[in-house]
Amino acid sequence: MEGILGLPVDPRGIAVSVHGSGSGRFSPRNMFVAHQLQRDGFATLLLDLLTDEEADDRRKVFDIDLLANRLLLAKRWLEAEPRTQHLKIGYFGASTGAGVALQTAARGAEDDDQLLFAGQQIAGCLVHLNHRFIMATDDQ
Prior knowledge:
- The chain is α/β, with parallel strands linked by helices.
- About 13% of the residues have low confidence.
């Protein structure tokens, strides 16, 4: 996996971007959101969960279990990385990424410090998680 780690001075947490299909770590929208979060004191990780070859396989692009497994690997890396191991981890996802973020958060339900950001596409989902959610209502 490849990603871009953004670390402001004294971050108060880290938001991991889990983008949807057709998007990536270099997407202007994803980079804009990351810069806004960094400006507000959050570290960010813009992550491509698939290789370029895998991204051409539509089955893998929408394989929530595969993508959640990759996101859990990234979470373990953040927990071991000296620059980020002390930070609370949150996920930011929209579209397919929102489903991946939810699946990953559900698998780590024992972690009370996760914060999940999600777009309106999952507003109708009923889930039982021990997490705080920030939902966008107009993510045009």
